[in-house]
Amino acid sequence: MLRGLSILVLTLSPLLLFSQVTQEKQEDRLVRLIEAKSAEKKTIDGKEYRKVTGPAQFLHNNALIICDSAIWDMQLNTVDAIGNVKIIQNQTILLSDNIKYIADRSVAEVRGKLVELVDRDSNRLRTRYLDYFTKDSLAMFYNGGSMVNKKGNTIESLNGYYYGKLEKFLFQVNVQMETDSVLLTADSLAYLANQEKAIFLSNTYAWQNDGFLFARGGWYDRKAELFHFTKDAYIKTTNNEIWADTINYNRNQAEAELFNNIQILDTAQSSIIFADYGRFKQKPFKVLLTNRPSVASYTVEDGIADTLFFAADTIKYYTFPRNEVDSTIIAQSESRFIQSKKDAIGEMYRKVIIPQKPTKIPLQKGEKDSLNNKDTLKQTIDTTSIKFFYANKNIRFYRSNLQGTCDSLLFNSIDSLIRLFKDPVIWSDKNQFTSDSAQVVISNRKLSKAELNSSAFVVIQEDSTHFNQIKSADVVAFFKSEKLSRFDSFGGVSILFFFKEDSVLTTMNEKECKAMSATFTEDKKLERIRYFEAVRSNAYPLYNLEKEKQKLKGFRWLDSKRPKSRFEVSDRYIKPSQISFAESVEKPTFIQTTIYFPNKNKKEPVKEI
Asked: Do 388 and 509 reside in the same domain of the chain?
């Protein structure tokens, strides 16, 4: 008998367990009334209802429903809550005038003149159409809505979701965002409330003051004030257009980092900057470029456009107010500026022909202003912006009429001189210039003079095996319309020139003197040579002249190092301007925010509901 009872218990146990689980599920399915003043049974059209007066409280899926009154359909398992309705679940509060709760679907259909969802971080989402799923703590709004956080930042869209368990909002279709001085629109955007972080999921447009940004993805960290933009990021400022695969921007530090396929179009300086890594700081303005950096500086002369391409391992560019620049740097730069305007051979020649008193070199208006700052400083603090440019290692540059290489380069806007260091080489047409260091004088954005300092050597190619050569302590080359018009040599000049008879090279002329000057015609032909002091000359027929005697000591023909095209300096593709596109994008108007938070941008506090 005991054995039979045991079998019966074992047989019934699964059935009892199933019955208990079924009962628990049935209870979980049903809405429970936990508090009310009364709950009257009503029969309408043959259906039984409970008319609940309150304040009343219902519970389902751990969600508390509070209202002034309700119609409770126990058969359909629904509650129509009316008046001052709240749903509270896990520190998320949903408020409205009326809510229809369908327990079998675990959904609250919230409709009304104003519906508000407040999460645990005090983010307030307002709309008129919202469904809230209590089982998953998920809200879905549509037909427009706006969210404002406790710091007053705004996000609005036509449709969206709230994931209570993740503390995450998802905004879709006509997304518009305002955070401090930044306005933003996007196709879709996720907001992580507990992290105060916005994630841009698709095409994104942003504005700050006069600046504009476009990207296909990224995020914004409100706590750290960090922006991260990816996928074809583009920025337009007053004077610049910036492209990069990835852009990081720290608003607190006013610093930005750019990664891969960087292009910066500087319209004020008529230049384009390229690199695969860049770091920028706004105040004081500093730029560091590495990973294949290069610069293209373009000009238009007589309707003809030309571009100088420049590359190095590292490029730095920064600006300082003049009053913050070291006084020694200013004094040295001003001295170089004055020296760069002198014409030593011209003065020497004028003294030989017509002795006269030295005359002051006339300066242009802008040049006068740049050298009169001492008087200005006595009266006011000079905050004129001074530009500095520095490049280091493996420097190459190319222009249609000028190419070169060196190890390092310096420039500042006080003297407007490009200074080249460590074995610089400059090529212009068939001319090669080398020295220990060199400096290039830029006047009105045009090449006007190049100075070779110490161990200067000029090589002019006659043919594949013969080269005119000038060797001296220093050489100065002058340019007109950026074409070589004259060069002067100083300090123990040694010269080898080859001459033709009937278009055939027949004679080599060897000369030595203290100084010399050579001029060229507009079609680049040697026009005249002048020699000064202690001139010695010898002529040699080329027939059977040893090759060693046809070259001065130290001769080097470095044509193999000469950039033959701009692509040997910078192989970057130049992206076309997107200004017209940027100006065509409509700024956010915040229509939904105007509807749901009408007092947000006024002095009055936002009205609570």
From this structure: yes
User: What three-state secondary structure class fits 18?
Assistant: helix
Beta strands in 294-416 (DSSP E): 294-301, 304-311, 314-321, 385-399, 402-412
21 occurs within a structural domain? no
Domain count of the fold of the chain: 3
Instruction: Output the pLDDT for position 11.
Output: 47
Torsions phi, psi for 592 (to 5 deg) = -65, -40
Q: Is 364 exposed, middle or buried (0-12, 13-18, 19+ CB in 10 A)?
A: exposed
For CA atoms 347, 348, 354, 357, give the dihedral sign.
positive
pLDDT band at 173 (very low <50, low <70, confident <90, very high): very high
How far is the C-alpha of 421 from the C-alpha of 54, rounded, in Å?
89
Mean pLDDT of 81-87: 94
Report the C-alpha dihedral over residues 573, 574, 580, 586, rounded to 10 degrees: 50
User: Tokens at residue 1, please?
Assistant: 């008998």
Instruction: Determine contact, residues 54/70, Cβ cutoff 8 Å.
Output: yes
535-538 long-range Cβ contacts below 8 angstroms, 24+ apart: 535/511, 536/511, 536/512, 537/509, 537/510, 537/511, 537/512, 538/509, 538/510, 538/511
Structure tokens at 124: 């307030």
Q: What span, in angstroms and rounded, lies between the C-alpha atoms of 457 and 469?
A: 7
Residue ranges making up the domain that contains 63:
28-126
Q: Is residue 215 within 8 Å of 228, Cβ to Cβ?
A: no
What is d(CA 228, CA 468) in angstroms, rounded to the nearest whole number?
Answer: 58
Residues 94 and 150 in one domain: no
pLDDT 10s digits, 116-142:
999 998 999 999 999 999 999 999 999
Q: How far apart are CA 107 and CA 79, in angstroms?
A: 11
pTM value is 0.76
Q: What angle do CA 245, 249, 255 make, to 5 degrees?
A: 120
What rounded mean pLDDT belongs to the chain? 85
CATH code, 59: 2.60.450.10
